[in-house]
Amino acid sequence: WTGVAVGPHACATHTDQSLDCWGPNGQGQIGVGTSGNTIAGPTSTGLKATQVAIGSRHTCAIEASTGHLFCWGDGSNGQLFAAGSATSPRQVGTETWTKVACGRQTSCAIKSDGTVWCAGSGYTGTAQVGLGAKTGHTDVTAAIDDDTYYAVQSGKLVTWSSASNAANDGAETQWAQASASKFERCAVRTT
């Protein structure tokens, strides 16, 4: 395994970038074309991915060869960047993406131009979530419990949530990476 994402369900990438998922599959979040049954062990999604992110009942991944974003599972709040749910990986547009993060009922991703886009609970359609047309974002992560997001933009740590949709830019410019979980929020400084 070369990468793993764990939440209510789990997904991991093999050394050849093939993506397997397992666990509760009530909304099709495992990505195997069905929903309802728990998938007991690693099962192929048919996708090769450079990164995977897990929400409460949905999954998103960046496809390895094209950089396209794929999402599947519960889409009842638009968190798949499209209307409706999907039990298999569904491509999101034709743009290329560099990073993806999933919260409880939301998803955020960074396009190759450095802009951050989010969809799901608290957002009307797909939006740039309080970040305007700012580019230069290099990292995005989510706290799955409360849909709070953290991004690094030109070295600044930026935070926002689906409830407020307003970004809070940090004053310091020495950040490289952010991480969040249910109880912790961490960021890596460059100096």
Describe this structure in words.
It is a single chain. This protein is mainly beta and 191 residues long. It is 0% helix and 51% strand. The chain is built from no helices and 16 strands. The chain has strands spanning 3-6, 10-13, 18-23, 39-54, 58-63, 69-73, 86-92, 97-102, 106-111, 116-120, 137-143, 148-153, 156-161, 168-169, 175-180, 185-189. The protein has a 7-stranded antiparallel β-sheet with strand order 1-2-3-4-5-6-7, with no helix packed on it. Strand 15 (175-180) and strand 16 (185-189) form a beta hairpin.
Taking all residues together, what is the mean pLDDT?
A: 77
**Alpha-carbon distance between the termini?**
31 Å
What is the H/E order?
Answer: EEEEEEEEEEEEEEEE
Spatially, the strands of the biggest sheet line up as 1-2-3-4-5-6-7
What keywords describe this structure?
191 residues; mainly beta; 7-stranded antiparallel β-sheet; globular
Topology, please?
Blueprint: E1 3-6, E2 10-13, E3 18-23, E4 39-54, E5 58-63, E6 69-73, E7 86-92, E8 97-102, E9 106-111, E10 116-120, E11 137-143, E12 148-153, E13 156-161, E14 168-169, E15 175-180, E16 185-189
Antiparallel strand pairs: 1-2, 2-3, 3-4, 4-5, 5-6, 6-7, 8-9, 9-10, 11-12, 12-13, 13-14, 15-16
